[in-house]
Amino acid sequence: MRVRNKIVQLAGAEYGTLGSVFAVEYAQGYVLIDSGMPDAIDVIRMTMDYWGIDGRKITHVFLTHGHDDHCGNAAYFQSLGAKIYIGKEDAPMLEAGNLGMDSPCTNHVMPCCRPDYLIGRDERYSIGDCVIEAYKMPGHTDGTVLYVGKIEGETVIFSGDFFFPEGERGDMARTGWKGDLSYNSSKLTESFRRLYIMDLKPDIILSSHGRALFGEKAKDCVRTAFKYHILNNR
What are phi and psi of 117, to 5 degrees? Predict the structure, then answer.
């Protein structure tokens, strides 16, 4: 699904798979936000073929956090030449291919992958004509990262599992799964407080499990999600 001229969704609920994957085109290739479940790889390749995306031109994969529905194909894209970026606290999950030896959620598995770059602080990446800003937003996991792209004059938030726009009119939002042992409601509150104060005024919000949101509804979604968290997660 083409979201914008330079943004294509490669996987997600619209394709019957768990975890959205977004490809952002720039002058020399593509950047991926997340990589989907391991069992989504055939759908991802089919969608890439449909849109004429050569996997060898995917140069960077930015992972929002370490769960299998986001990191499941990181090893595959790394094998094609992409550099893998992840919040440093979540790297052990990616490297082990699971949520940790102490987690009872033993069905969450993925191919092991050693990331190329650990995100330990807020950073700004200039990749050709594409600018990606990474903000550390712990709570859903300790290593959760929110990405903000400046793409063709629009501010695009890739929110991962931090929060999802939802509802028939896109006027609702909620937060992600609480099954990770590093889930921390207090940290999530502080991350929301920080994001709310930043007042990024996004033109588009693209999450991992919710619906795409555009325009004024996108600009108000952070407040809606923050309110949901305060009322439901503390």
Answer: -145, 130
Amino acid at 66: G
Note the residue count of the chain.
Answer: 234
* Tokens representing residue 96 in the block: 């082990």
CB 146 within 8 A of CB 197: no
Rg (CA), the chain: 16
Q: What is the SS3 assignment for 31?
A: strand
CB contact set of 227 (below 8 Å; sequence gap of 6+): none
Per-residue pLDDT of the chain (234 residues; tens, 9 = 90+): 999 999 999 999 999 999 999 999 999 999 999 999 999 999 999 999 999 999 999 999 999 999 999 999 999 999 999 999 999 999 999 999 999 999 999 999 999 999 999 999 999 999 999 999 999 999 999 999 999 999 999 999 999 999 999 999 999 999 999 999 999 999 999 999 999 999 999 999 999 999 999 999 999 999 999 999 999 998
pTM of the model: 0.97
Surface-to-core class of residue 161, CB atoms within 10 Å of its CB (0-12 exposed, 13-18 middle, 19+ buried): buried
Chain-centre distance for alpha carbon 96: 20
